[in-house]
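Researcher: Structure for this, please.
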Amino acid sequence: MQKKPWIIQFLQSIRFRLILLVIAISVVPGLAITMGLLSSYEDRSVALRGSEVLSQARILANQIAASDFMENKGDGNIQAQIDMLTSIYDGRVIIVDGNLKIYHDTYNLDNNKTIIAEEVIRSLGGEDMINYDSENSYIEMTIPIENPEDEDEGVIGVMLVSVSTDNIVLNQNSLQKVGTTLLVIVIAVTIFFGVLLVLYLMRPFRKLSDQIAAVQDGYGDDALQVNGSSETALICDRINEFLGRMKRMDESRQEFVSNVSHELKTPLTSMKVLADSINTMPEAPLELYQEFMQDITSEIERETKIVNDLLSLVKMDKSAADLNVAEVNVNDMIEQILKRLQPIADRQQVELVFESFRPVTAEIDEVKLTLAITNLVENGIKYNRTDGSGWVHVTLNADHQYMYIKVEDCGIGIPEDALDHIYERFYRVDKSHSREIGGTGLGLAITRSSVLMHRGAIKAHSVLGEGTTFDVRIPLNYIA
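Model: Predicted structure, token format:
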């Protein structure tokens, strides 16, 4: 497999994504806060400026209404106040009479012109209007001119006031520069320490990767130990469990190869000895020939048993797509299994009992599931009591979704520390006893594979010296 360039590996790494996350966490909120503060400053400043100018303009409008300025511009006091208002706020004041004619313009640009605008017309109706033009940086307001002491006179004109907000914009720009500088500093510091934090947090994973590589190359310890965080400790524990399982499987395979080699070699050796004995005794009686041939037949059957178990395990390794699923009467299937195993039970003086709570029909591969149940019942018979009081009980039950098969015996039992390993291939609890009986350590591995291929589950409960119970649960309808 071609190794990716380091830059591609870095861009696809968790470290790079965490660095991007740190940058995003520092930049996005900083920008949002800065923009929000600047916008808030602008809105607040404009509102204050507008309120201040509107208050001054209302006072001036009332004074204009109370004087004869609308009839005679000679009132120097009013003119001075208008000039002061425009000077202080860098603005423009336009006085419009009741006929929409511009009576006075501080810029002297539109005197005696007619102005028709929505704001002016609405102010003639008695409304105050204020509007902020952010693009051109000015506040525009219209104030009705009316004498508050003479309500019968009504609105006699409108005063338009436009004031500049350039100083607000300048202050905002200054604040923006200061804010941007501070934001850049904060972002740079955050990114710097964030990257250091990310690199620090990723160090345990780097150590973990190096230790895994060392173990893989054969230069490391069998157990991984990385003291970084609870997550890396948990990963180490899971990997150590996996390595332990792989080690046990490797030891089991080596032991299996040794055992199978011995098991396969022993019948061959026995057959060769028997055949050589017959060849060296040409005048031997017929009874002796028959006895030797019967022994050879037994050894061949023993060899066949080992080979068949190996072939069954290979078949179980295939995918579930190889299942030949059909509707099967499970009651009849189990009865046939017990019928075939009855001679073995009779020889062992073990009682076989089958109890069914209801008729059960399920979608299963009859051949593979028969092999699984046969292994469980046969184990219960072989590893049972030898005093004639042994028994194996098989029960069948079902609900609307699953069928439940229980195989229970009163045999020698299984040690508690071995229950987690009994389904491992080539594993045998009592190696000497299994060899005497003829076990290969494959039966329960085959059984578990068959159950899992049917999307089922199997559990074992045992008390040493009292017996073992296997509980099998399989869906009534096969799940592809």
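Researcher: Any notable elements?
Model: Residues 137 and 166 are 6 Å apart (CA to CA). The chain is about 55% helix and 15% strand.
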